[in-house]
From TrEMBL:
This is dCTP pyrophosphatase 1. It holds the Pfam family MazG-like. GO terms for molecular function: dCTP diphosphatase activity; magnesium ion binding. It is found in: Cytoplasm, Cytosol. Hydrolyzes deoxynucleoside triphosphates (dNTPs) to the corresponding nucleoside monophosphates. Has a strong preference for dCTP and its analogs including 5-iodo-dCTP and 5-methyl-dCTP for which it may even have a higher efficiency. May protect DNA or RNA against the incorporation of these genotoxic nucleotide analogs through their catabolism. The lineage of its organism: Eukaryota, Viridiplantae, Streptophyta, Embryophyta, Tracheophyta. It catalyses: dCTP + H2O = dCMP + diphosphate + H(+). GO terms for biological process: dCTP catabolic process; DNA protection.
Length: 127
């Protein structure tokens, strides 16, 4: 995926664009030496923990988060972004094309969990 322009003149957000921005960000700060796969994975796990804390005491939450305050949704967006950005950076440092890997995984899950036998079952989560 490349950063194509759309009608508003803004660049589309793609994994490739985010990968390049994360690379530039690290280079500008001379942080590349810290971005080993292990360090990035541990940072990712920490961010997943922060994301989990947001939901920790809320019980089941309806789709769309209708009862959440805007500040809570903004905070959730920030933590989701942290997870996404570390995942993108980790895949880049490991030399994994995350777009292709994700599409392949969806195809593998479709074979592993055919639509008809699993329809309506909770045993179709993919791993």
């Amino acid at each position: 995926m490349t950063g194509a322009k759309h009608g508003t003149g803004e660049e589309s957000v793609t994994l490739d664009l985010l990968k390049r921005k994360m690379d530039e960000f690290a280079k500008e700060r001379d942080w590349e030496k810290f971005h080993s796969p292990r360090n990035l994975l541990l940072a990712l796990v920490g961010e997943v923990g922060e994301l989990s804390e947001i939901f920790q005491w809320k019980g089941e939450v309806p789709k769309g988060l209708p009862d959440w305050k805007e500040e809570e949704k903004t905070h959730l967006g920030e933590e989701l972004s942290d997870v996404l950005l570390y995942l993108i950076r980790l895949s880049d440092i490991c030399g994994i094309d995350l777009e292709k890997a994700a599409l392949r995984k969806i195809e593998l899950n479709a074979l592993k969990y055919p639509a008809n036998p699993c329809k309506g079952s909770s045993d179709n989560g993919g791993d």
